[in-house]
């Protein structure tokens, strides 16, 4: 029997259950929502089971209360298959007036939003769940804590780290799918391909019962993969598809498919960061294109670890995507979000981790190497120098996050260099 690997979201779920009557866990299928929720559930209604779903559809019209009875917190898995349950859970939370009554999990936004009459504000807490970070899959030793960097503890002295690039290429293509982390290499890589095929062949149409072409879904996801980490409009995706697949497609069609993929939590674009600057520089506000996990892009393009090792430019894009995934997971533990910065002068910062208390850190993402690390360090120092610290705090830290480095350390200029295999929340 495979041992459950502790997730960062475990602690977040426990915390939310202490303060809210119900907690909704959302995220892509196969990321481990059900397994995580079962660790704390007292009873389970498994609507992912077709027989249970069929029986429950009959029962909700006869005796809704029976579906909600059971030891608490009661897990209702794939709740969106019966959207009416939302209001039933909300009313039951009001009646019981106790925290920790229900956990709901869902791998898509419910298609029938009209069946939900109340938002659940004050009754429901929401948790976003993603595939595993490297720390959760036990591939980062966690010797550098993001929370320590925010609290000024930093890295007292250089820490040994891995300087092997090939494992990083494998981790990008395998992804953070929990089941894949228990499998041998080839079998592990197959998981992302099966996920990609499932999304294209069925999920993208089932999400809202709208027939969509599997081939067009593949085209759009391939274009997304080629343009990950970029701020591009849908018209660019159209042009990219025409150039590579010779088939016409409209902006409206791309928008429809992308929205379906968002509802499935396959796509998770990154919003722009808008700091107070001392200059009147115009800040670009376009979202940056990302999948929720880099392995989806690898599957969409049909590439593997060896392909990344032979194309370091492409490898850099995939590593950036994996780093963004991990930073989002770690930031969620700290009550923060991850943003991208770009202005009209061409100055960029790959990621800005901004916490609710106003603290933030600037992070550049590089594969490694002295030249690239130097480039990243100068970039974030330049951004830090134009922030108006009379109107907002100075950054808590500046960091170059690398794929490989012999050490995790603090440079003389104060910039931290941290390999991803050393980082945790």
Describe this structure as you would to a colleague:
It is a single chain. By secondary structure, this protein is of the alpha/beta class. The protein has two domains: 8-128, P-loop containing nucleotide triphosphate hydrolases (Rossmann fold), CATH 3.40.50; 144-424, no CATH class. It is 40% helix and 15% strand. The strands form three sheets. The protein has a seven-stranded mixed sheet with strand order 7-12-13-11-10-9-8, with helices on both faces. It has a five-stranded parallel sheet with strand order 2-3-4-1-5, with helices on both faces. Helix 9 (214-226) crosses helix 12.
Can you give keywords for this protein?
425 residues; alpha/beta; Rossmann fold; 2 domains; five-stranded parallel beta sheet; globular
Secondary-structure topology with pairs:
Blueprint: H1 8-17, E1 22-26, H2 33-38, E2 43-46, H3 50-62, H4 64-68, E3 74-77, H5 85-96, E4 102-106, E5 124-128, E6 144-145, H6 146-150, E7 159-160, H7 166-174, H8 185-206, H9 214-226, H10 234-245, H11 251-263, H12 294-301, H13 305-309, H14 312-333, E8 336-342, E9 348-355, E10 360-366, H15 370-385, E11 397-402, E12 407-410, E13 416-419, E14 423-424
Helix pairs in contact: 1-14, 7-12, 7-14, 8-9, 8-12, 9-10, 9-12, 10-11, 12-14
